[in-house]
Amino acid sequence: MKNIQLFNDDCLKVLRTLPEKSIDLIFADPPYNLSGEGFLTTKNGKVAKLHKGDWDVITDIHKFNEDWMSECIRVLSDTGTIWISGTLHNHPSVGVLLKKLGLWIINDVIWFKRNATPLLSTNRLAPSTELIWVASKSKKYFFNYDLAKQINGGKQMKNLWEINAERHKTIHPTEKPETLMQRIILIASKEGDTVLDPFTGSGTTGAVAKKLNRNFIGIEISKEYFDIAMHRINIQENDELNFNVYLNGNNNNAQQLLLMEDKAKYTKKKKEKAII
Ligand SMILES: C[S@@+](CC[C@H](N)C(=O)[O-])C[C@H]1O[C@@H](n2cnc3c(N)ncnc32)[C@H](O)[C@@H]1O
Fold first, then answer.
1. Is residue 274 part of a domain?
2. Which of 43, 102, 121, 181 could potentially form a cystine with 48 if both were Cys, beta carbons 3.0 to 4.6 Å apart?
3. In this predicted structure, which of 24-28, 59-63, 64-68, 195-199 has the lowest mean pLDDT?
4. How many CB atoms neighbour CB 5 within 10 A?
């Protein structure tokens, strides 16, 4: 029987409890570190403060990255890969740390969003990409080359991925498109493998992992987003997987917890159309 485990906790704390080399694929979408005073963006065509949430304001981002990345590397299997997404606010730190921690850097995937939000300021180019570092502990890692080729219409897949930002399914401000997660999980894991997402957010990785018959371990520090992820993963159809959630370190049955909650609060409000 396959399993889904969702933790409402700090990822560092939970990662330290996971067995060494037990994970086949890690997808991490850590805080971007782009929120703060004086940062502006556009929302529904108007200027708005760029504040993704308090979780996105980190004093020492390099130390934060080194701590969670070191633990992820400890739990990653020798044939597994780690995929870390981010923008220019964080990817230099991640790249330096991958080298420092002795990983083999396989690819830098450029995710291009043709429909990215326009920029109001006139002193720079409009950001329309995110970078996804792909790395492993050895040169013998799992990579489904043939499937990647098949997904790309029979042609060798390149590291420039054009995938539009999708209308968000939840109120989480930085929800990733399911199309992106589907591609990563298909290329980098097999059915029955275990996928870990230490910054689960709205649960995109978990919902896609469940759909594709992978075991999943997700960790999310915010109770609000944890609830959203729990609901989203729960409604994703697949009866073959057990679903357990951990609140304050205690194991609970997800379905029973959800029965007690007001499900309506997880559905996206129509007015909010945020696209990262
Ligand atoms: C960029 S978002 C991830 C979005 C996610 N990929 C999705 O599709 O919804 C980062 C998430 O990490 C969470 N987070 C921040 N620090 C954390 C920590 N130390 N442990 C666990 N989660 C954390 C935030 O609450 C936020 O939801």
1. no
2. 43
3. 59-63
4. 21
